[in-house]
Amino acid sequence: MLPPARRICPATMSSRVDHVVICDFDGTVARADVGNSFFGTFAEAPWADAVQEWKEGRIGSKECLEKECRLTTATLEDLRRFSSLQDIDPGFHDVVGWTREHYVPLAIVSDGFREYISLILGNHGLDVPCFANRVEFKGSRLRPSFPYFERGCGRCANCKGFHVRRYRDAGYRTVFIGDGLSDLCALPESDVVLAKNELADHCEREKIPHTRIADLGDALHVLRELG
Ligand SMILES: [Mg+2]
Ligand SMILES: [Zn+2]
Is the pTM here over 0.90, yes or no? Predict the structure, then answer.
């Protein structure tokens, strides 16, 4: 259940339509593409072929992640250690602070795995709702699962369009922050797009209204303008 979009803001006692901030994780909150570098570290060589097939649109991200997991030998302890080495954009702390101060819901939506996202956020003292794929460790084998697959576009393992649309349908003005190819389905559902890197290039090419950001410090400036 999502919180109602129109409610009394306790800070100002005024009623207003709320924004929601929905943020990608890999390359946006985490500096690195954590999923990719995890597979780069623990999977056998053909993992990169699966990613290439996905980039070229020949397979969806569910199939890509399933292939990558099959090629990987790693334990939960490996994931913990790997996650403890990951940096986040320091601006994310300020984004979290701004959303709390303004009673704006914030969620992370990722086509990676919730397990490393929770570990990394926890390591940085953060607790933010997260919608992502799941992975279980059976010894050193990985068993992925995709709780939102059926509700998405059929190509994404966890379609960001589905999650952003849920907020929009509940009456929110949706602000999406992302950096890459796994964010494309979020674009038509977003009222405000803050885009880094490949996602900003894509928006430019396709003439999709967006603000190009270098990092979450830039994102915070845009959020402050929203009021
Ligand atoms: Mg990303
Ligand atoms: Zn999708």
Answer: yes
Whether the Cβ atoms of residue 164 and residue 178 lie closer than 8 Å to each other: no
Q: What is the dihedral of CA 143, 147, 153, 159, to 10 degrees?
A: -90
Which residues fall within 8 angstroms of residue 137, CB to CB, at 6 or more apart?
A: 74, 75, 76, 79, 143
Residue 163 CA to ligand 2 centre (angstroms): 10
Give the closest residue to 25 by CA, choosing from 106, 96, 117, 122: 117
User: What radius of gyration, in Å, describes the C-alpha atoms of the chain?
Assistant: 17
Relative to beta strand 106-113, strand 211-212 is unpaired
19-23/173-178 β-pairing: parallel
Å from CA of 109 to ligand 1 middle: 10
Which ligand is the nearest neighbour of the Cα of 26? 1
Tell me which CATH code domain 6-226 carries. Answer: 3.40.50.1000
pLDDT in tens, 54-113: 999 999 999 999 999 999 999 999 999 999 999 999 999 999 999 999 999 999 999 999
CB 93 within 8 A of CB 123: no
